[in-house]
């Protein structure tokens, strides 16, 4: 298997410095505003930003109950630079049974007065990556990153 | 699920200090001497002791070819104190498809002039833990830890 076949990547130049992009990731009330495409609501249940810390978000469409969204474990946390989580583990390195096994590697690189934001998503194999792409990876992650950009660019 | 139902634990008091036990874990030629029950041979392919680093060992019975044994990723590395790896990821946080999903948490605690060595093994669920126990977890890990003890106690 070539690594690139099991990876999906999306990147965007955000017109705000890494410090602001990091704040939008590391503050639960900010994260809830962009992490799921509107008008679906996001609830941040766990955002324990340290290796082994839990990451859990829930989602709600309309007036129903909040449903599971992401349940994961942070692997690397480098403020204003790099954030990695995986769904194959939950809080405390507990092996999990995710509906979609992935590791997401987000990097924030200063570029001029802005931030080159890149999300690289690793899957178990090429078939999983293809399934994720067909489920709308680029649309979904693209929309949330556009929401992230709109949020932090408005705060400039 | 109660956490304890999906965990298996084994512990032993080793009559050597944590520094020696750590050396037997962190040096490939030493690790190869105890990590698999004799007379099965162990080959240490990767021992990249840092978060995200690869851990790979192979085994050989008799005169055949070396076969896969463990392919995993280190999660935490605290010299002389704590070592954590998981088989649900490989080098570089790559999600994997292990034949047995587990996270192993080894702790080394000074006790008198020796080391209390504890291996706590987390599984996805109680069924996996039971399967691992029936495959001979306590015999297998017990034998390797006895080999570890014999190795480091002889070096005293």
Structural notes for this entry:
- The structure is a homodimer of 156-residue chains.
- Chain A has helices at residues 18-26, 28-34, 126-134, 137-154, and strands at 7-14, 41-47, 54-60, 67-78, 82-86, 89-90, 94-95, 102-111, 114-123.
- In chain A, strand 6 and strand 7 form a beta hairpin.
- The mean pLDDT of chain A is 96.
- Chain A has a 7-stranded antiparallel β-sheet. The first copy, chain A, has a two-stranded antiparallel ribbon with strand order 6-7.
- Chain A is of the alpha+beta class and 156 residues long.
- Chain A binds chain B through residues 3, 51-52, 75-76, 84, 86, 88-89, 93-97, 101-103, 105, 122-125, and chain B through 3, 51-52, 75-76, 84, 86, 88-89, 93-97, 101-103, 105, 122-125.
Write the layout of secondary structure elements.
2 copies of one chain form a homodimer.
Chain A: E1 7-14, H1 18-26, H2 28-34, E2 41-47, E3 54-60, E4 67-78, E5 82-86, E6 89-90, E7 94-95, E8 102-111, E9 114-123, H3 126-134, H4 137-154
Antiparallel strand pairs in A: 1-9, 2-3, 3-4, 4-5, 5-8, 6-7, 8-9
Keywords for this structure?
seven-stranded antiparallel sheet, alpha+beta, 4 helices, about 40% strand, homodimer, globular, two-stranded antiparallel ribbon, about 160 residues
